[in-house]
Amino acid sequence: MLRTLGLFALTLVTLSAQAAPLSIGAPAPDFALYNQHHERIKLSDEQGKWVVLYFYPKNDTPGCTTEACSFRDNVNKLIQKKAVILGVSVDSLDSHQAFSQKYKLPFSLLSDTDGKVAKKYDALNDFIVFKFAKRHSFIIDPTGRIAKIYRDVDPQKHVGIVLKDLTMLQKTAN
């Protein structure tokens, strides 16, 4: 009985500690993480640019590789739109470095080993024994506000959809 009450209390505390879901127009939660080159990347330092922030489960797995290589293959189109790509997973810096080198990824992969940033974006699967980021993405506008949220991502089609949405968002922002 006491154990059941303890688990119930822990569940309530966990639920109450969860942040309100992010919404379009809300300020994007700021963060500072290190990339595969051991550089500290702070989201607020990207203000004035469009940011494509994508969370992914695991380096060098089929879906994550497809998505990362698609961003790589379209990086010039995204740069033309004055957009910065930031990939985030709970993998280590060494893992990011190997993944980035293997596939020649020309953008930052950020290491969120404790999952705190993914949790802020409701993009964390935490099973206590292990955790990984959910495949969720966000477009953040130059003022630091969330312009688009993707919770159902198909790695093969995602970057094409992001490019179309980014074009539309930029037209309506001008």
TrEMBL record:
The keyword Disulfide bond applies. Keywords: Antioxidant, Disulfide bond, Oxidoreductase, Peroxidase, Redox-active center, Signal. GO terms for molecular function: thioredoxin peroxidase activity. Residues 22-171 form the Thioredoxin domain. Gene3D superfamilies: Glutaredoxin. GO terms for biological process: cell redox homeostasis; cellular response to oxidative stress. Its EC number is 1.11.1.24. Residues 1-19 form the signal peptide. GO terms for cellular component: cytoplasm. PANTHER family: AHPC_TSA FAMILY PROTEIN (PTHR42801:SF4), THIOREDOXIN-DEPENDENT PEROXIDE REDUCTASE (PTHR42801). Thiol-specific peroxidase that catalyzes the reduction of hydrogen peroxide and organic hydroperoxides to water and alcohols, respectively. Plays a role in cell protection against oxidative stress by detoxifying peroxides and as sensor of hydrogen peroxide-mediated signaling events. This is thioredoxin-dependent peroxiredoxin.
